[in-house]
Design a protein that fits this description.
The chain has 250 residues and is an alpha/beta fold. The protein contains 7 helices and 11 strands.
């Protein structure tokens, strides 16, 4: 069984339950069965698949919410990689791959995104150059991760805006749908009026747990009220989700 060893001299950005959630994925993004453990300052992953893969790791950068960051493709070897450097390399690589796919299709990246991406590349180059000094490399790598995260956010927003605009142009007069989940409680008159002004599609949640909290005690008053409201205001109604894999839905 091969090993992927990741040196982590500073665990400040790692979440407390990193060992339970760090994992390895293949080229098709399918997670592999693996085991994670600490060996001194090294995070050691033992995947059951003897191939190169990407390590996905939950981080909580300073003043930011937790996110899962991914390295580039790493081969299994005994010599450790420096985790922060590889996460920076992976984040920048994902952005560049998206640009390579989207720009030929007509995406125009915003200048601010380009600026952040250039910053991330510069910091990554500095980190790679000083890997012999891990603390110094981590400083540059984390700057690269933050800049790459900002670039990814800007790119994602720009892609969404341009994709929606393009689909509206191609719709030949078909109005786009903008939806909202009406939730499990009746709508107040004020909220209902605001929804009717903005949205033309509404999701009516119908969860069996909520509709039938006790056996033989079924009540559809809230969902029926939502459907009646949609009919009166010309809002399209959508029921769902049919399957929701979380604690509330199962």
């Amino acid at each position: 069984m091969g090993l992927i060893r990741l040196q982590v001299p500073d665990r400040g950005w790692l979440t407390d339950d990193v060992l339970q959630r760090v994992h390895v994925v293949g080229l098709d993004n399918t997670p592999w069965p693996s085991r994670a453990e600490w060996d001194g300052d090294c995070l050691v992953l033992s995947p059951l698949v003897h191939e190169s893969g990407r390590v996905c790791c939950p981080l909580r950068p300073a003043d930011r919410s937790e996110s899962v960051y991914s390295t580039g493709t790493l081969m299994q070897r005994e010599r450790p990689y420096l985790l922060d450097v590889e996460l920076a390399r992976g984040g920048i690589g994902q952005i560049c791959n998206c640009l390579a796919d989207w720009e030929p299709a007509g995406l125009v990246p915003p200048p601010a995104m380009r600026h952040q991406l250039d910053r991330a590349k510069h910091e990554l180059a500095q980190a790679v150059a000083v890997q012999i000094d891990p603390p110094a490399a981590i400083v540059h790598a984390r700057r690269a991760i933050l800049a790459a995260s900002e670039a990814a956010n800007l790119l994602g927003v720009s892609y969404a805006e341009q994709a929606v605009a393009a689909r509206c142009d191609e719709g030949a007069g078909v109005p786009p749908l903008l939806g909202i989940n009406l939730g499990p409680a009746p709508l107040s008159p004020k909220v209902a009026g605001q929804i009717a002004e903005i949205f033309n599609l509404a999701i009516v949640p119908v969860a069996w747990r909520g509709e039938t909290p006790h056996e033989a005690d079924t009540g559809w008053d809230v969902s029926d009220g939502h459907f009646d409201w949609c009919a009166r205001h010309g809002v399209r109604a959508c029921v769902g989700p049919l399957l929701q894999l979380d604690a509330r839905g199962i």
